[in-house]
C-alpha cells in the first residue's frame, strides 16, 4: 500500500508542479485532486482520533484529497467528543450530546501554560494551571488571552505577513487559543524545550513523535472564539463559558481586565503528525456563517464577520479583508466590525463531503450545533520525502481559515497562507528547526 501511495503521490506532485507553473489558481489544483466520486463513504461517528489517513482499497490520484478530508472530519469529530474530567471521551454518548461538558481537546495544554515567564518548568499534564487572580479561581474554565493568531499581535508592526485582530459584527475582538496534546507536551517537557536554556542545551532540531498504525502522535490545535452578543444565536454554535482576559504584560497600553463570558467556536485548526507525513497534516474548519465567498451569493441572513449593508452598519465597505485601523485595544467593545470574505472557494468534493458529515451529525442528534461547521480543506505533502523541497510540495497549494489567516488569504506565493510553507520557517530560540511549529519560539 505504501509503495502504491508513493507512486501516486509522485504523479500528484508532477501534476501539481505543472498546474502551479501554469496558474496560481489553487482551486483548479484542489479539484483535480479531489474529484473522488468513487472514494470511500464517511465512517460512523467515533470518539477515536484516527492514527492514520483512511487509505483503503485502490489508491488513486482522484481519491487522495478525499481521503485526507475524511481524516480531517474524523479527527474533528473525535476531538470535539464530550469528555470526562480527565479529558477522555465519554462512553455511551455521541458528539452532539452533553452540550455543557468540555470537549476532549479542551483538556489539552494551552501554550501559555507551557511557556512560562522566566523559563519556569510548567505544571504536569494533570495539574491545572490557575487563572489570573482578577478572573477567579475556577481552573477548569478556558482562559482566552490571545487576540490574534500570533502572540502579542497588538504590539507587532513588522510582521512578515499582514496581520491584526478580527472584529465581529458586534464590535468585539475575536479570541484565540493554541493547545497541544499530551504526546506533544511530554516531548517539550522531557527535552526541556519550554525554556531558552533548555533549548540551548538541547542543541538539535525538534522532532515531535509521529502517530503510528495504532497510536495517535503529536497534535496541535488553534481555536477561534467570538463573544456571544446581539444578533448571535448561541444555539447555532458550540459555546462555553470562558474567562476573556486582557493581559497588560502582552499588550502594551492595555489595562488588565477579565470577564466570564459565553463564547462560540468560529474557527478550528488541527495539525497532526502522522507517519509518512513529516510536514504534518493540516485540517481547518469554520462555522458555516463566518463569511461569504467572493464571487458567490451572500445568501446567509446573518454572518459573523460580514455585513450585507456595510455602509449602514458603520463598516468600511472598501476595507474587505483588511485589518482594522490602529490603535488596537480589546477593551474597546465598539470597534468598527471587520468586513471579511472567503477568497478561495471550498472545493466541490470537500463541500459534498461536508454535507455528508453534516447530515450524519443531524441524524445522530437532530439540531446539533456540530452540523454548523464545515471543513475548508486539508493540506498534506504530496512528496513527503522530496530531498529538494522540505515542504513536500503541499496540496492544496494554499489554505486559509477566514478566522485564523483572515488577512493573508489568496493565491500569491510567499505571501498568501499555506500552512506547510509557513510553518516550514519555524525555528526554536537556539536557531534550530522546530518541526513545523512556532510554539517553541515562545520559550523564555
From TrEMBL:
Entry keyword annotation includes Signal: yes
- The source's domain of life comes to Bacteria
The residue range of the signal peptide is 1-24
Q: Provide this UniProt record's keywords sorted from A to Z.
A: Signal
The family database entries (PROSITE patterns) matched by this protein are listed as:
PROKAR_LIPOPROTEIN
The name this protein carries in UniProt is: Cytochrome c family protein
Amino acid at each position: 500500500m505504501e509503495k502504491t501511495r508513493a507512486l501516486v503521490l509522485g504523479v500528484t506532485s508532477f501534476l501539481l508542479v505543472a498546474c502551479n507553473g501554469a496558474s496560481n489558481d489553487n482551486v483548479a489544483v484542489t479539484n483535480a485532486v479531489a474529484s473522488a466520486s468513487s472514494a470511500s463513504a464517511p465512517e460512523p461517528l467515533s470518539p477515536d482520533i484516527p492514527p492514520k489517513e483512511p487509505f483503503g482499497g485502490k489508491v488513486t490520484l482522484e481519491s487522495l484529497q478525499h481521503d485526507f478530508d475524511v481524516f480531517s472530519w474524523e479527527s474533528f469529530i473525535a476531538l470535539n467528543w464530550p469528555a470526562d474530567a480527565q479529558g477522555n471521551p465519554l462512553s455511551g454518548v455521541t458528539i452532539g450530546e452533553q452540550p455543557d461538558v468540555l470537549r476532549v481537546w479542551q483538556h489539552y495544554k494551552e501554550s501559555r501554560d507551557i511557556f512560562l515567564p522566566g523559563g519556569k518548568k510548567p505544571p504536569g499534564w494533570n495539574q491545572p494551571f490557575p487563572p489570573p487572580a482578577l478572573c477567579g479561581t475556577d481552573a477548569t474554565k478556558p482562559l482566552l488571552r490571545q487576540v490574534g493568531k500570533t502572540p502579542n499581535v497588538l504590539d507587532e508592526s513588522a510582521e512578515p505577513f499582514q496581520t491584526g485582530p478580527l472584529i465581529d459584527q458586534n464590535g468585539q475582538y475575536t479570541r484565540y487559543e493554541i493547545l497541544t496534546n499530551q504526546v506533544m507536551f511530554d516531548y517539550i517537557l522531557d527535552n526541556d524545550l519550554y525554556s531558552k536554556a533548555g533549548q540551548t542545551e538541547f542543541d538539535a532540531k525538534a522532532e515531535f513523535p509521529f502517530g503510528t498504525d495504532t497510536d495517535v502522535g503529536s497534535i496541535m490545535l488553534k481555536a477561534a472564539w467570538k463573544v456571544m452578543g446581539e444578533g448571535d444565536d448561541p444555539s447555532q454554535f458550540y459555546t462555553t463559558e470562558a474567562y476573556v482576559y486582557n493581559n497588560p504584560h502582552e499588550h502594551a497600553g492595555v489595562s488588565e481586565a477579565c470577564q466570564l463570558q459565553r463564547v462560540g467556536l468560529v474557527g478550528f485548526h488541527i495539525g497532526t503528525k502522522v507517519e509518512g507525513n513529516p510536514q504534518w497534516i493540516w485540517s481547518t474548519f469554520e462555522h458555516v456563517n463566518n463569511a461569504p465567498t467572493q464571487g458567490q451569493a451572500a445568501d446567509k441572513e446573518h454572518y459573523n464577520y460580514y455585513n450585507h449593508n456595510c455602509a449602514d452598519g458603520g463598516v468600511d465597505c472598501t476595507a474587505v479583508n483588511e485589518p482594522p485601523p490602529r490603535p488596537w485595544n480589546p477593551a474597546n467593545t465598539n470597534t468598527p466590525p471587520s468586513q471579511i470574505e472567503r477568497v478561495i472557494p471550498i472545493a466541490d468534493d470537500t463541500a459534498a463531503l461536508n454535507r455528508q458529515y453534516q447530515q450524519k451529525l443531524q441524524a445522530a442528534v437532530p439540531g446539533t450545533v456540530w452540523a454548523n461547521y464545515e471543513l475548508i480543506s486539508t493540506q498534506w505533502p504530496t512528496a513527503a520525502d522530496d530531498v529538494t523541497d522540505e515542504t513536500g510540495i503541499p496540496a492544496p497549494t494554499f489554505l486559509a481559515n477566514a478566522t485564523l489567516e483572515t488577512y493573508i488569504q489568496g493565491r500569491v506565493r510567499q505571501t498568501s497562507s499555506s500552512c506547510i510553507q509557513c510553518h516550514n520557517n519555524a525555528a526554536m530560540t537556539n536557531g534550530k528547526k522546530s518541526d513545523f511549529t512556532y510554539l517553541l519560539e515562545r520559550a523564555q
